[in-house]
Design brief:
NAD(P)-bd_dom_sf, EC 1.1.1.47, binds nicotinamide-adenine-dinucleotide, oxidoreductase, 7-stranded parallel β-sheet, Rossmann fold, globular, 7 strands
């Protein structure tokens, strides 16, 4: 299994920290050549350094996924460095402080939609153009359990963006299946990252309450979500497309 991504090129957005960084490190450990894309230059370079320390191959590209020019350049940088774009993980995303829907400002809504939904749209747009030109590829989008079920956490706006990613994934998968492009999404439960710390600090819940959302009562590690991204980019999942896979300890099953 360790060679499943051997020799493939992978563009991973939001890879300066959290789930994206864990995914970049796992992909490199499995033999992929990784492009770490993020607005956070310092963190992105740290991810590259960590990959290189482990004997892997990676470059950093500064890219804001809300900018078409940045995303197009990130895809071009991947092709420039590694010849093609085999795998794309559209992971970058944000979450505002939880607030009831009637208190969400227009500015907060626009910012959330710009990163979580438009950012994934732009990423897919330029990734698909490259994959059509080279004859195939694999895309995995980051959604959330919040896109699958209703949660009383003041995240209606965030849920809407993740539900949009799930719908876009499903329809795009059907549209490009005959061109050899597989498109799936991953829907994590509550993962130990800075995003979680931010939600705890913002008063959305305590760490115990967050863990209690999972039937198992434990939080998820970024590396566990990374494993699902690796599977969905590997040939082991070659018959899987258009799916949104929950990595949520059964949270959405009840
Ligand atoms: N942590 C969780 O519990 C959880 C659960 C479900 C889904 N998710 C999703 O997982 C993804 C990663 O979250 P995380 O928890 O690792 O968060 P994180 O805040 O630790 O990392 C997010 C990364 O995305 C980058 N980023 C933000 N806006 C960007 C932009 N416009 N362009 C490029 N990069 C940008 C940040 O700089 C950061 O490096 C997000 O899409 C999030 O919605 C997280």
């Amino acid at each position: 299994m360790s060679e499943v991504l051997e020799g493939r090129s992978a563009l991973i957005t939001g890879a300066a920290q959290g789930i994206g960084a864990a995914t970049a490190r796992l992909f490199a450990a499995r033999g992929a050549k990784v492009v770490v894309a993020d607005v956070n230059e310092e963190g992105g370079k740290e991810t590259v350094a960590a990959i290189e320390r482990d004997g892997g191959e990676a470059i950093f590209v500064r890219a804001d996924i809300t900018s078409a020019a940045d995303v197009e350049a990130a895809v071009a940088a991947t092709v420039g460095a590694y010849g093609r774009l085999d795998c794309a993980v559209n992971n970058a995303g944000i979450e505002e402080q939880g607030s009831a829907l009637h208190e969400v400002t227009e500015e907060a809504w626009d910012k959330l939609v710009a990163v979580n939904l438009k950012g994934v749209f732009l990423s897919m747009k330029y990734e698909i153009r490259q994959m059509l030109a080279q004859g195939g590829g694999t895309i995995v989008n980051m959604a959330s359990v919040a896109g699958l079920v209703g949660l009383p956490l003041g995240i209606s706006d965030y849920s809407a963006t993740k539900g949009g990613v799930i719908s876009m994934t499903r329809t795009a998968a059907i549209e490009y299946v005959k061109q050899g492009i597989r498109i799936n999404a991953v829907c994590p439960g509550v993962v130990r990252t800075a995003l979680l710390d931010q939600a705890i600090q913002g008063g959305m819940f305590t760490e115990e309450q967050a863990a209690g959302l999972h039937p198992t009562g434990v939080l998820i590690d970024p590396a566990d979500v990374a494993e699902t991204f690796a599977f969905l980019c590997s040939d082991a999942s070659r018959h899987i497309t258009g799916q949104s896979i929950a990595v949520d300890c059964g949270m959405s099953a009840g």
